[in-house]
Amino acid sequence: MKRAAVLLGACVALSAGPAWAGGAWVGVRGVRPLSMGGAFVAGAEEANALWYNPSRLDGTSVAMDLGGVFMSAGYTAPDGTAVSNTGRTLPNPTLGAVYKIADLISIGAGIYAPYSPQHRFPEDGPQRYSLVESDRITMLIMNVGVALRLGPVRIGGGVQNVDFHLRQRTVLSGYTGLFSEPTDPDLDVLSELELHDAFTLTGNLGVSADLGPVTLGAAVQLPWTAKGQATFRVRLGQSTFFDPITVEGDTADFAVPFPWMARAGVLWRANDSLKMELAFNWEGWSVQDSLIIDPKGQITLRDVPGIGDYQMGKLTVDRGMKDTISLHYGADYTILTGLHARGGLFYETSAFPDATFSVAQVDSSKLGFGAGGSYQWRWFRLDAAVSYVHQFSRDVTDSRLRQVNPTNPDQAVIVGNGQYTSHIWIAGFGLAWYQADLEANSWGRVRQVIKTILLDESFGLDAEAGLPPTRTFHMGFWFNNPEDAAACGFNPANPTPFNGEQQAGPLAMTSLPDAWSGLGPLCTDPETCQD
Predict the structure, then answer these.
(1) pTM: predicted TM-score of the whole model, two decimal places
(2) CATH class of 6-434
(3) How far apart are CA 408 and CA 425, in angstroms?
């Protein structure tokens, strides 16, 4: 009996459609992008650039962050019965590193997950024919990328592997029309669908241009398809209707396409302290207008009351999804050196019309707000962000979603009508290490604190010496090891001595050496210049 309704479970599990698609993720991922309202295309940085725009890979850094997503969702059936989401909050990680090989090329690698809400509703609730549980779903993206810097223009690309694991529970009806009613709990069959596709290759491309205080950026995410043989498990209801049924086979081919995505952004540096970005995103979710399950003749129900033996054919599941667009705005303000405050907002359209909207796809049009900041100390930076996403309520009266009832489909009742409300809270924190570097911004400005200690007697000159006019002072750099300057054409065998307090970085000014003594103006014993 445990396997008697496996095929029926397959039908219902797919009829609702996987709850992770189209609303699969919030339109933002990553702690720093979260605080910027997802406006992170032209100004993408560090590991998050692997997803948003690989052309912005630059510098040398290691970063990790965690984001938690909690969805508060409620459904009220036409009869007034209400249920709410109790899905758990799972950490959504990002871990990545970027290495600057040379001024012209940087590489990066990372692993990350989309910011996805989880769903769980009562097994006996009015929503059960759409969804019971989908809070054990994971999607990890492993990504390597490279970026080339050609003057003000940067181009980049990445190769990604998507590891996808889905486990979802739904309820079907075994109502035959001979007794009871379509929503009789004794005729309910709880089904579980599981699919694991560990290897699916895809990729992305990006381009950007630094034009003074303005940076332009654009990126394209290539599509991919999660596919494989789905496995089904069931728990039958109390009715004796299921007793004589047996089934041969318990798997079927299942494929779910994920869409093309395109994003573009404009970053403006208003001054040394303030930068703002406006970004646009498009996702082609209409690729999921329908889904197909194909047993390929491998599943047969035997001894079905009133039917006999029945071989399962190909099933088409109506999704009716639409492409989505979103607008993002974010700002980053430097309060003090090393201390940043950020804020942003975004608006995203829904991927589902009322006709196919349900608790399995709580993806209404949404308005999101983000805030956060970071503190930088030496080579480390701490990031934190929080976001509130309001999803506009839906009052559905024209749903075409019905129970799945293979034994009596003509009497399956509509299950999608009702009122839906939801909002999402997201919070995250991150830690980054990076290799410090002196780089000019788009205006050619560099901000850096330089400490020097000069001798009281900086210059030792012989007023009677008839030397030709020479430049007596030049800007230069002091090296801990003279050999480090050999690549610049400096002769390490003839360094200019400096009796200062040496710390890391450029600390002192030096000059051309004196023609007689070989010592520069920062000589330790000016008397030798006068003998």
Answers:
(1) 0.78
(2) mainly beta
(3) 41
